[in-house]
């Protein structure tokens, strides 16, 4: 019981599950969610249309990529043009009723999980169930237990070990970000000081020139 409690506490923030029901319509046919991932994290994405194949002719595209938010107002590149490995794209599945994909995050920072109605099928309004797991929650400990004949305690210990590794990576990532922010702040402060000194010098020089100019007409 105590071991399970420790594992639950460690899981907060270092592994996560996201379950969403997303409604896609003809006018709003692409929706995205953003998540912060760390380099080396395992990412598992499952998505499916919430209806049987006979009930809908819709197909979905799903893309996971780093960078800026997807522009859903018209200027964003269609999801069916994304390919895995191009511009850091981790997952690119097209024209599917169900999607099951896994990838390892290649860089730190925000990533966008975008899902939309495929352009290669009728865009019938549909509800899509999205299941996103990453970090410690993405690992398949059941398969590990069956393979290595581990009991529940050993599986939980292995899960805690994975979460601790995620915690360690997150600490280093936060330290790097803090150092970058500190350097940026110091650089900005130095530039502001130089700008203030330059501004003061210009004001003093202008005042001196005005005094000399008025003295010429006395």
From TrEMBL:
| Main location (coarse class) | membrane
Q: Where in the cell is it found?
A: Membrane
Answer yes or no on keyword Lyase: no
Membrane topology term reads: Single-pass type I membrane protein
Could you name the Gene Ontology cellular component terms for this entry?
A: membrane
Identify the domain of life. Answer: Eukaryota
Q: Say if the entry is tagged with keyword Metal-binding.
A: no
TM spans (from-to):
192-214
Q: Where is the GOLD domain?
A: 19-218
- What is a single Pfam family found in this protein's UniProt entry? EMP24_GP25L
Q: Per UniProt, which keywords does this protein have? A: Membrane, Signal, Transmembrane, Transmembrane helix
Against InterPro entries, the record matches this protein to:
Emp24-like, GOLD_dom
Q: Which family does it belong to?
A: Belongs to the EMP24/GP25L family.
Q: Which PANTHER family match?
A: TRANSMEMBRANE EMP24 DOMAIN-CONTAINING PROTEIN (PTHR22811)
Name the record gives this protein? Vesicle-mediated transport
């Amino acid at each position: 019981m105590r071991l399970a409690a420790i594992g639950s506490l460690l899981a907060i923030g270092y592994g996560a599950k996201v379950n969403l029901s997303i409604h896609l319509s003809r006018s709003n046919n692409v929706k995205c969610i953003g998540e912060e991932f760390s380099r080396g994290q395992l990412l598992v994405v499952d998505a499916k249309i919430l209806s049987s194949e006979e009930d809908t002719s819709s197909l979905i595209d799903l893309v996971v990529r780093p960078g800026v938010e997807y522009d859903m107002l018209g200027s964003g590149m269609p999801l069916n043009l994304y390919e895995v490995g191009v511009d850091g794209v981790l997952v690119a599945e097209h024209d599917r009723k169900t999607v099951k994909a896994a990838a390892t995050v290649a860089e730190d920072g925000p990533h966008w999980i975008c899902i939309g109605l495929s352009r290669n099928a009728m865009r019938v309004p549909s509800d899509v169930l999205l299941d996103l797991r990453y970090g410690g929650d993405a690992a398949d400990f059941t398969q590990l237990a069956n393979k290595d004949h581990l009991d529940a305690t050993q599986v939980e210990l292995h899960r805690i070990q994975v979460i601790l590794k995620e915690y360690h990576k997150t600490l280093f990532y936060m330290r790097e970000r803090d150092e970058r922010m500190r350097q940026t702040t110091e650089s900005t402060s130095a530039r502001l000081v130089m700008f203030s000194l330059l501004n003061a010098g210009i004001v003093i020089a202008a005042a001196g020139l005005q005094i000399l100019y008025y003295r010429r007409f006395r």
